[in-house]
Amino acid sequence: MKFCFNTKTFSNKDVSSTKLAVAGDDFNVSWIEFSNQVDMLCNFLQKNKLVGSGYPVIVYGHKSANMIISMYAMIKLGVPFIPVDEVFPIERVKKIIQSAKSDLLLNTTPNKLNIKETNEVNWNGGKLQVQKNKQIFLTDKIPSADPIIYLIFTSGSTGEPKGVQITNESVEAFVHWIDRDFDFTEKEVFINFGMLSFDFSLFEVFMFGYLGASLILNNGENDFSPEAISARIEKYNGTIWMSTPSFAFLFLKFGVDYKLTQIRKFILAGEVLPHSLAVGIKSRFNKAQLVNAYGPTEATIIATYIEITNEIIKKYNSIPIGVSNDYYKNRVEKGEIILNGPNVSIGYLNKDLLNDEKFGLINGIRYFNTGDRGEFKDDLLFFKGRDDDLVKFHGFRIELNEISSVLNQLDFVGKSETIALKRNEVVKKIVSVIQLKSDDRNKRDIDFVKSYLSISLPEYMIPSDFLFIDEMPLNSNGKADKKALVNLYFNKGS
Ligand code: AMP
User: Fold this and answer.
1) I need a labelling partner for 321 at 20 to 30 A (CA). Which of 125, 186, 307, 408 fits?
2) Domains of the chain, each with CATH number or no CATH
3) 321 within ligand 1 shell (Cβ under 6 A)
4) How far apart, in whole angstroms, are the C-alpha atoms of residue 270 and residue 152?
């Protein structure tokens, strides 16, 4: 059968109709079922005039096959989508809806959200139900030559999540580059672990569709069972492991009897790959390739990668993140990694000032100032950390200022600052330091503060510890002195 989309990137793949397309945590779909369900959803949305306003649609849920069907339906309709995981608190989902002016949420979970600012289609099991809260004004605007395929909302330093807009051109550049450089075939079975609201997961979401291959979604992070994950990989003959180093570490920590020899590639990305983990993977899976990939959401999934061989492990104490790339014009300028190519986003949604600072054009090609420090050595690119408040914790991207700005909304908080305690550039703990307005001991209630934060922040952004202080130490610029705060935290017991 042919799987046909309206975009240049995903079109006319020859694929066997009975072959597995997606194994979700709800049900599995073959390619013919996948294609039919994508069409059914597209027809339903068009018939009910639920799409066509030009605003992005929220695709909401977790690891269901319907999440993937919904994303591909949006691609087929040419409607931008925003993947949002159900772990996000409702307040955060509302902020995303407001910021993107989304007038439709495709809910693939069994629970209705009833958010009055948007319409909702419940897309769970085979049945489709609509809850209309808002009129949709259809537009006959001709779509721009390079329409947006998806937006990913990441943590924002001002306290609001910010939307990274990725166009068709960027996705096309990405899939063609990966197709050229990786020896993937239609026989691949991609093993997904990351949440679908993170852009690294779109690697396998797009590549399985591009190749006419298969995708297994794993609900690994909620109900972590290395045995169950291994059994699932064996059952479906998973060939390409996609995860953060943190997840791979957690998995490897538990010895399982399964050999998992069918996995031929481990592709890790999203945070520092510790040397010891690279050694661990190479020795346990000695026939498989290990790839370290790097790139921010702003540059479409990944921007550099390198195969980590035993020679590299032996020669270098820290693991490189890439090589000089002939596909994108990435470089290091004054110690900062600058990404340059058609993969670079057209900018954050409605953030003109920030866009001027972070994005630009060189010879007509977009670039992004990553804020990541890097260095080329022997033609290999090494990651050297960051100087700002963006951190990666267990693979999650967190702007520390976003946590502080939520804390500052509490009426008893005078000032707050959030710090990350790191070892070898790997974040070990996140701590918020709070200066109270008056020293009322009752207000030092950590449980209350945590539950307040969890109204608008996902679980992974809640600090593991809090420190209450009388006076915020300041540096010569009048800003909170972070080094002093780290010392205060370590000496707090003494
Ligand atoms: P995200 O937008 O969630 O993909 O996060 C992007 C940021 O994660 C980058 O700007 C880096 O700071 C960090 N990052 C991504 N991949 C790697 C890697 N392989 N090694 C070190 N840091 C990484």
Assistant:
1) 186
2) 2-380 (3.40.50.12780), 390-490 (3.30.300.30)
3) yes
4) 15
Alpha carbon of 295 to ligand 1 centroid (Å): 5
Q: How far is the CA of 471 from the centre of ligand 1 (A)?
A: 34
d(CA 467, CA 451): 16
Burial 240-262 (b: 16+ CB within 10 A, else e): bbbbbbbbbbbbeeeeeeeebee
50 neighbors 37 (Cβ within 8 angstroms)? no
pLDDT tens for 322-365 read 998 778 889 999 999 999 999 999 999 999 999 999 999 999 99
Query: Distance between terminal CA atoms of the chain?
Result: 70
In the reported structure, the alpha carbon of residue 404 is separated from the centroid of ligand 1 by a whole-number distance in angstroms of 22
| Pocket residue to mutate for ligand 1, from 246, 372, 381, 394, most atoms within 8 A of Cβ | 372
Find tokens 């934060």 and name the residue.
453
Read off the pLDDT of residues 196-221 as tens digits, 9 standing for 90 and up: 999 999 999 999 999 999 999 998 65
246 pocket-lining for ligand 1 (C-beta < 6 Å): no
The residue nearest atom 3 of ligand 1, judged by CA position, is: 397
Q: How many whole angstroms from 333 Cα to the centroid of ligand 1?
A: 18
Convert the pLDDT of each residue in 44-98 to its tens digit: 999 999 998 889 999 999 999 999 999 999 999 999 999 999 999 999 999 999 9
Ligand 1 pocket: which of 154, 373, 392, 399 to mutate (most atoms within 8 A of CB): 392
How far is 316 from 376, CA to CA, in rounded Å? 13
Asked if residue 293 lies in contact with residue 299, where contact means CB atoms within 8 angstroms, the answer is no
Token code pair at residue 474:
């300041």
CA of 117 to the centre of ligand 1 (A): 33
Which residues of the chain carry a pLDDT beneath 50?
A: 494
What is the residue with the minimal CA distance to atom 21 of ligand 1? 272
Helix axis angle for 168-181 and 201-211, nearest 10°, is 70
Helix (H) or strand (E) holding 150: strand 148-154
What are residue 20's phi and psi, to 5 degrees? Answer: -65, 130
Q: Are 399 and 389 in contact (CB under 8 A)?
A: yes
Bridge partner list, 268: 243, 292
| Residue 361 burial (C-beta neighbours within 10 Å; 0-12, 13-18, 19+) | exposed
**Which DSSP helix (H) or strand (E) runs through 22?**
strand 20-23
Kindly report whether the global pTM for this prediction surpasses the value 0.90.
yes
d(CA 470, CA 33): 62
